[in-house]
Amino acid sequence: MRYALQRFTQFLIVFFLVTFGVMVFMRIGLNKPGDPARTMLGGTVSQDLIDTTTRRFHLDSNYLVQYWYWLKGMLTLDFGYSNPNNLNVTTYLKPRVLTTVFLGLYSIFFALLVAVPVAVYQAYKRDRPFDKLSSFATFFFISVPAVVLAPLLKYIFIDWLAWFPRLSSKVYPWDNPMLHIKNFFVPVLVLTIPLAATWIRLLRADMVQTLQSDFITLASAKGVPPSRVLWGHALRNSVFSLVTSVGFQLGGLVGGALIVEAYFNMKGMGSLLVVAILSSDLFTVQSVSAILVACVVLVNLGVDLSYALIDPRIRHARALS
Amino acid sequence: MTNVIQAANRDVNGPLLELTDVKTHFRTRRGLVRAVDGVSLTLERGKALGIVGESGSGKTILSRSIMGLLPTKGTERHGSIRFEQQEIGNLGRKQMRHIWGKEMAMIFQDPMTSLNPLMKIGKQIAEPLRIHLGMDKATAWATAERLLQDVRIPEGARRLHQYPHELSGGMRQRVMIAIAMACGPTMLFADEPTTALDVTVQAQILDLLNDQRKDRNMSLILVTHDLGVVAGHTDEIAVMYGGKLVEKAPTRALFADMKMPYTEALMQSIPKIDDPSHTRLMAIGGRPPDLVNPPQGCRFAPRCLYTRDKCLTEEPPLVATDNPEHTYACWYPVGSPEYHESKARLSETPVTIGRLD
To answer: Which of B105, B113, B117 is the closest to A221 by Cβ?
Structure first.
């Protein structure tokens, strides 16, 4: 309990520090630091509008006050106003967030779906042809950067095989599941392949080590069938690095998808952030980074909790502290 | 004490285990490692056999060879292993799996690393029961609780729901024994079962093993480097050196009349209670033989205090003493005229003897 409280306090501190930092640095970095409203609105605008905007977002008060009002807005899901998009940030942020979340969750899900069985089987058939071949393949795919993989897979699946439509606009699964899948297939594949390759290597190494443990020999000596030795005894003892890496990946979802978003012209959070920073779109930058920080910190919290879920020793050590 | 599962009534004629010229060789980059090199022995039902030797003598590999627990890759197995009158030496892991845990079970050296740290004790004991005897979960856990009683762990019901890290080393070794006993095996291997334990706990664990063996009419192979461990807990002792059996005798006969200088040296490396304090222990000089290129002749000859020319060129066969159950492999055994002659010569030049006062 004390542990959970401690973690939650940590979460809040990190969140406040980072979001406040982003706000301050965005304002310091402006072309005309003294006049955020004018920069934000851009171009030629009436003094009247500037005054209204300044008053509305308290842009003339000190940073702490501004931060306080922004935070209050966040709590009521009012993320502020974005001039380049001429929209309330909340309205146009939603589809962007969803696109990135779909990309990230799909790729992580499929990467795990592939990585776990392959790594387990590799470790089981260690140094046999399957292991050697797939070890080479994973090494290869880790080395191929996304900028190479993206055009390659686009060429194969979209241009040559023509299995998938040429990048239609965003479709939600609840609107048209089939089209949604077709739309996301290639971009997700680009993200999945290097992820899966990394995780296969990670998990295989840990599995190989676990399989040499005495308790694995004991499990065999009890007559436990190999599949249960692998899945019931060895895997759970080998997932710690994998869980950590999946956590990192979940947290860094947006940055990782940037190239893919840009290449496949998918409007996600990564591309949004880049454009927003370049056009001094204050509230968009603040909102997107707030979401990112929240993601990273929450996922880390989740990773920490899952350690305890997996390992009773960690659970007990924490209960004592 | 009531036991959970009585060993099924079997054909009680003939020995339980019969090894004929068992060899286990490993292919390595350096060459063929002859870890076990031609071991023959028999074990009767309900008897305890101690296999003694230093590290690298092949004792652990021998026990794992019998169980078929070695990796298949790079391992060559020769000779015949008959268990319950059935050849098992050529069986693969797939077939052995039905024997493992059910007919044959093994207790490992280190109870700290031999239990799955992420699995409740109860589940680990219940696992073989469910697999081999097809028990449902409730029955298996109830049986597990009674097994904990058998191995004298109090508060079994609570312990079942604990994880290995919540138990002491001695407790964990008891759990290991409970797991091994679960399906009522006829043959138990204990590989250095007490080496990792506190001295105070060692005797308890050995006594427990012995009681269980007698209660269940189970055969036991106790693998150890410590003659002291096997002395009170076995019927027979086999001494291994360099992958070979060098002496085998009923326990009492061995201690009364050991023939092999290696056995004698092992004996002398144990501190004796009536020695004055600070008496230097006799150590065996040198190192165990390289099993890729074992020495010609007797494998112990390079380290033996009584070596003669013949020892270095001709390998001594296993021969019996007056007692047909007592066999040894030595040209000039303890007690022979040559042995006494060498010993007399050695005592004139005390520097060469290990004992320095």
So the answer is: B105
C-alpha torsion angle, residues B302, B305, B307, B312 (rounded to 10): -10
At A100, is the pLDDT very low, low, confident or very high (cuts 50, 70, 90)?
confident
Which amino acid, B211?
Answer: D
Residue A62 CB burial class (10 angstroms; 0-12, 13-18, ≥19): exposed
For chain B, percent helix, then strand, then coil, each to nearest 5? 35, 20, 45
Q: Which domain holds residue B317?
A: 264-352
- Tokens 């998918």 label which residue? A266
Q: What is the pLDDT of residue A30?
A: 67
Question: Residue B47 domain-assigned?
Answer: no
Q: Give the C-alpha separation, B151 to B159, whole Å.
A: 12
Which among A127, A215, A223 has the least Cβ separation from residue B113?
Answer: A215
Contact B36, B24 (CB under 8 A): yes
> pLDDT digits over B236-274, tens only?
999 999 999 999 999 999 999 999 999 998 888 877 777
Closest approach of chain B CAs to the CA of A124, in angstroms? 12
Examine residue B240 and state whether it is found in any structural domain, yes or no.
Answer: no
Average pLDDT over residues B38-47: 93
Residues B225 and B54 sit within 8 Å (Cβ to Cβ): yes
Half-sphere exposure of A198 (CA within 13 A, CB side): 20
Could you give all domains of chain A from N- to C-terminal order, each with its CATH number? Answer: 2-84 (no CATH), 96-278 (1.10.3720.10)
| Number of domains present in the structure of chain B | 1
- CB under 8 Å to A106, separation ≥6 — which residues? A184, A188, A191, A192
Nearest-CA distance from B107 to chain A in Å? 8
